[in-house]
Structures are given as C-alpha cells and as structure tokens.
Amino acid sequence: MSQAASSGAKRPLKVAVQMDHISTINIAGDSAFALMLEAQDRGYELYHYTPERLALWGEKVMCRVEPVTVRDEAGNHFSFGEPQRVDMSEMDVILMRQDPPFDLAYIAATHILEKLSETTLVLNNPVSVRNAPEKLFVTQFADLMPPTLITHDRKEIDEFRNIHSDIVMKPLFGHGGAAVFRVTKDDLNYGSLYDFFSVTFREPWVIQKFLPNVKHGDKRILLVDGEFAGAVNRVPAEGDLRSNMVRGGSPKDSDLTEREREICARLGPTLKEQGLILVGIDVIDGNLTEINVTAPTGIRAIQKLGGPDVAGMVWDVLEKKLEA
C-alpha cells in the first residue's frame, strides 16, 4: 500500500494528522495527541493539518501541512516547522481525527481521502466512516441495545414514550454529550423540548429508554482492529445525566463483564472487515448505546488509570498492515 511497504524500506513512516487545530485541544484527554506522541517516540515524520486545507486536483490530493513536534506539556505541547505543500499520496498513514459534527464538510473530507486508498493507509477507513454514522451504525446490533427509536415524527415519539415512560432524547449527529435530555413520564417540558429539537435539528433524533444505572457509569471500551484494547468507566457528575468527560464525568478503572466481552466479540469481525481500526463503543448496564468511529476518545484516560497502552497497539497494527 505505502511506499515503505512496497519497497521494503525501513525509513521512518510519514504520518499526517487531520485534526482540529492542535492549539485548541486539551492534551490531557485527547486521543489524537496520544497517537502523535507514540508516533514521535517511534521516530516517524509527523505532520499536522486541518481538514479545510485538503485540495482535490482531479485525482490528486494536495495539502499544506506543517511538520510538528509534540510535547506532553500543557500550554507548550507543540511546535511547527515550515509549512509545506505536499502530495498526500506521499504519506504512509493519515489519521482522520477531527471532531464531529458529522456534517457535509466531514463527509466531503472522507470523499477526498478515499482518493488515497491505493497509496496511503487512512485511519479510520474513510468509506467506512462515511457509511457508519455512529448512532445509526449501532442499530445493526439492535439486539444488544436498549429500546431505541430514530425519527423526527411526534406521533412515533409519543408512542415510544407511552411504552417506556422515561426516555432520553438526543440529536442523531450530536457528540460530546451536547443536547442530551431525559424526559420523564410527566415532564411538562416535553412539548417545548420537541419544538426546540424541531427548529434546531433537521435530521431525525435518537430516542432511547432511560437506563437508571447510568448513574454507575457509561463504559467506554476501545477496540483496535476488532479486538478489545482497554476500557474506562465514565461516571456522571452529581446532578448530571451525561457521563462524557468533557461534561464533567469522572474516569474510573474498569474490567469487562461477560456481557461486555460478548458485545466486543459480536462487533469485532464487522469492525475489522470494514477497516475501522480504532473504535470506541459505549455500554451502559450491559446495553450497547453507540459505536464511535470518527474520533473516539479514551486512550489517555485508560493509560492514566494504569491500563494498556492503546496508542502503541494502534501503531503496532498499522505497521503490520503496511508490511503486508
């Protein structure tokens, strides 16, 4: 696939990271940064760019990138070399790590990166990312999920609410716990919340049965090339429904239950087949709620809790794929 792989050369890999600008990230919890630190430790050539810089010239993908050096020092975590305009087919690996929203700009970037499929290994496979919206892809495993409805229709939501009473409403393409609401059976805000969603989100919404045991945690499980790699239990802050660490959730060390191992075993072959090398799944009380394929987090939290070196696992897999 890559030049290094085709020639058998042992030169340093050339790695480009497509991400939100590195100056804006919180390095304490950023998985892209963890992957960059590991790549640098392995002696790879590391480059940084933001997705709007991609330029498609017919079949050729060009981009202005900066050579980047990273340091695990908050406030002093990166420095750039001189910007370069490069043919992206010269890269061995591209990490597609910008955060959602999964909007038309995100989709356009997947189409552009798809042009590099013959020369460059992209994590995750851009075709599979495009075809696996996180809150829709998970419905391929509906028997592992809590009762879930995806719709924009008020009457369907009313029917679901009549059956399950206590529900959660969230945007289909939301991320980071934004706009996640619990609606109880007698909640007088339901009508207003429906109106708010109607004018804010054109796409359908996700409606799920509320799982009371979320108070004990929403477990993030990372899979690398379809295999379990590590887990962290995210416990919501007092008085908050959401367990996302960007919303105040607390990371706790965690082992897998038998049910969670079953979930990983069911998902693994599909993820591997589709080239989804780094995936984060969310499990609440034995219920699969999301499959995160765009820019899954959790690597740094797992490592800080004494868990496995997931970043190292990712690069081990990528190196093997390049050598194949």
Structure characterization notes:
The protein is an alpha+beta fold and 324 residues long. It is built from 10 helices and 17 strands. Strands 1, 2, 3, 4, 5, 6, 7 and 8 form an 8-stranded mixed sheet that branches. The protein has a 5-stranded antiparallel sheet with strand order 15-14-13-16-17. β7, α3 (104-114) and β8 (121-123) form a beta-alpha-beta unit. It is globular. The model is unreliable at 1-9 (pLDDT under 50).
Summarize it.
This protein is α+β, with helices and mostly antiparallel strands. The chain is 29% helix and 27% strand. Strands 1, 2, 3, 4, 5, 6, 7 and 8 form an 8-stranded mixed beta sheet that branches. Strands 15-14-13-16-17 form a 5-stranded antiparallel beta sheet.
